[in-house]
Amino acid sequence: MASNDVLESVRPLLPAIAARAGATDENRAVPAESIRELTAAGFFRMFQPKRYGGSESDPTHFYEVVREVSGACGSTGWVASVLGVHAWQLGLFPERAQDEVWGPDPDTLVSSSYAPVGRLTHVDGGYELSGRWSFSSGCAHASWALLGALVVGAEGRPVDFFTVLVPRADYRILDVWDVIGLRGTASNDIVADKVFVPEHRILRNYEHSRLRGPGQEVNPGPLYRMPFGAVFTSTITAPVIGAVAGCYRSYVDAMSDRLRRSLGGGRFADDGFAQVAVARAASEIDAAILQTDRNIGELYACAGSGGQIPMELRLRTRRDQVRATERALEAVDILFKTAGGNSLKRGNPVERAWRDAHAGSVHVANDAPRTLAMYGKGVFGLTVEDNLV
Length: 389
Prior knowledge:
Elements: H1 5-10, H2 14-19, H3 21-27, H4 32-40, H5 59-72, H6 74-90, H7 95-102, E1 110-123, E2 126-136, E3 144-152, E4 158-167, E5 172-174, E6 188-198, E7 202-204, H8 205-209, H9 228-255, H10 272-305, H11 311-338, H12 349-361, H13 368-379
Parallel strand pairs: 1-3
Antiparallel strand pairs: 1-2, 2-6, 3-4, 4-7, 5-6
């Protein structure tokens, strides 16, 4: 595997990101300094087309960096992952839309809220958009937003589903994010009222799910021929895995020399139950990383070969992605339960990682029963229709 140059540039930043993790959590926002550092390290260029100075990186490298950043601070890793993946999706929009975003400044960032709660109405030259969207992680650091919206027919029924690109001047951000986990992601609400959206800033989700996008004409690389259902959902799972992997490292460092004050005393590390606990947690983390990297690597290779990506592989990728989140939760629960009362203290890395991992697990991309049922349908030869495949 080729070296991950961005990871080597990001690693020196991790101690400072970790040192800011407590303030990030308390202030409910990732510091601008962290975003500037990750930008300078080239992280946000990993999924950007080469024609704008991006690196079009192997996606397994992107998720590897996300896991490392998340190990230092779950909220920072989540925001980096979500803002970083939007360069990939913008690369699927018409060339004119890409030029509008990256032409003035190739370091411009884009946030998102994909739930189709917006309403689009046909007008001359495009559409009129109105709506209120929740959970736009890191939106304060972005100058544009990708928003989900429905076209409603004459009878008031939805007739099509789009992702639309809107500049910061056309929407407001409402500070509503006050939650128990991933507090620093500042996943606030976005409001737009009768905003004009030209045709070139709209991507039809039906085409997107079939691995087609007008941007492929100018961005022919394999990265832009991968499924949204794999790329975006992995973007959500990677920070969860990373936060738990970082928690594991902190746990081992803290517990190696700890002396028990009860249960007969003695060193924690000498306890056979503690040894079994770290073995189980480590195995779950390793399994999560190995399966997700394997699947993303196979998808990328398949896209690079020019052949059709098998539905079996797309479904397996989703199966293992939601299972990776479940495995990460299993691991962090083991660590939290065995760390003792000290893990309850606010600001403790184990406590924060436990909150962040569980918060990330409730994202729709981590809906395990629905996703596993979808995989089962495929195994039994039934039709699978879902935008997140």
